């Protein structure tokens, strides 16, 4: 067993005084030596944490001992070092930001798509009456996606509801939704059902579980993850790289943040262009006076930034604007 592990999990389960729970949960995580990011909301938990195998075992045991979270499933990765630097546990309105906050309309504990285990998803995905739907953000599916999957041009999951009309032509098909760990599919599939789609499924455990249990067959590229690993391999059966360098077009699976903190855009960039542009997306950003030092990773620890009031279009960051 590796010295360190990274745990990916979520659980939709009501939490009373969720804000107070978040504060106490942060203390507990720190006390056992974990690092990572956890979102706590009235509707449940969503997190990725990392630490020694002993600390991760203690965490899973504590979560399962709480009857509210006893059903929680953990995706476990053995890693060479912790996947985070600090421990954060924050209270938010949702455990994954969708804008769908009315529990009378969208409540994964009451209605969601039929869960498909990885081997069943693999068996169904190529049928003529099936559509595979990627519910992740564009920067995620540009790095890797299932072969023949329908992808949406969305910067964040909260943009998903506005795309429902574009999917209306598939209402007579079986819709197989997928995301990184399963959490987005809970609400995406529930919304599809609410909007009149009759036959909706979701990949149970998401891409990560599919890679572990089905070998990742037909998942093209790498899977984006919300920690300092940035991307992980999924496919051990028929792997292929589909992403290209934004600057030169060369095939690459390396995704970074622009070194200019006022841009901070997610994009794929090969090592050569990374060296030439010092981890920036353009020469304009390279010349910015606040440009961060590029160490070859393109991953930066979050530091307080002044508000840029002129910035019209917000950029997604590696600092977990969405947690999967």
TrEMBL record:
One of its GO terms (biological process) is tRNA modification. SUPFAM superfamilies: Rhodanese/Cell cycle control phosphatase (SSF52821). SMART domains: RHOD. Keywords: Oxidoreductase, Transferase, tRNA processing. PROSITE patterns: RHODANESE_3. It comes from the Bacteria. It is an enzyme of class 1 (oxidoreductase). Gene3D superfamilies: 3.30.70.100, Rhodanese-like domain. It catalyses: uridine(34) in tRNA + AH2 + O2 = 5-hydroxyuridine(34) in tRNA + A + H2O. The keyword Transferase applies. Its EC number is 1.14.-.-. The keyword Oxidoreductase applies. GO terms for molecular function: oxidoreductase activity, acting on paired donors, with incorporation or reduction of molecular oxygen; transferase activity. Residues 126-219 form the Rhodanese domain. Belongs to the TrhO family. Catalyzes oxygen-dependent 5-hydroxyuridine (ho5U) modification at position 34 in tRNAs. This is tRNA uridine(34) hydroxylase. It comes from Hufsiella arboris.
């Amino acid at each position: 067993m590796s010295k360190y592990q990274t745990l990916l999990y979520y659980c939709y389960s009501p939490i009373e005084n969720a804000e107070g729970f978040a504060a106490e949960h942060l203390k507990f995580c720190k006390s056992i030596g974990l690092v990572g990011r956890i979102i706590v909301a009235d509707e449940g938990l969503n997190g990725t944490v990392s630490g020694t195998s002993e600390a991760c075992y203690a965490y899973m045991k504590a979560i399962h001992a709480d009857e509210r979270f006893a059903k929680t499933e953990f995706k476990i990765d053995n890693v060479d070092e912790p996947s985070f630097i600090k421990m954060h546990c924050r209270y938010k309105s949702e455990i994954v930001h969708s804008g769908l906050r009315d529990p009378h309309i969208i409540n994964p504990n009451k209605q969601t798509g039929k869960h498909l285990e990885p081997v069943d998803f693999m068996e169904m995905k190529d049928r003529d009456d099936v559509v595979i739907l990627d519910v992740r953000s564009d920067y995620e599916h540009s790095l890797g996606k299932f072969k023949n999957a329908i992808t949406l041009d969305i910067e964040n999951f909260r943009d998903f509801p506005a795309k429902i009309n574009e999917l209306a032509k598939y209402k007579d098909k079986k819709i197989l939704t997928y995301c990184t760990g399963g959490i987005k599919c809970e609400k995406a599939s529930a919304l599809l059902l609410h909007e009149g789609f009759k036959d909706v499924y979701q990949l149970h455990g998401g891409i990560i579980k599919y890679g572990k249990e089905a070998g990742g067959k037909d998942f093209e590229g790498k899977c984006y993850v919300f920690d300092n690993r940035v991307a992980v391999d999924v496919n051990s059966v028929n792997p292929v790289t589909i992403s290209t360098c934004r600057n030169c077009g060369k095939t690459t699976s390396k995704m970074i943040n622009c070194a200019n903190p006022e841009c901070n855009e997610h994009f794929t960039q090969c090592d050569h262009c990374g060296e030439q542009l010092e981890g920036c997306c353009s020469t304009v950003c390279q010349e910015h006076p606040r440009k961060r030092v590029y160490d070859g990773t393109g991953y930066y620890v979050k530091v307080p930034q002044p508000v840029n009031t002129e910035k019209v279009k917000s950029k997604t960051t590696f600092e977990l604007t969405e947690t999967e």
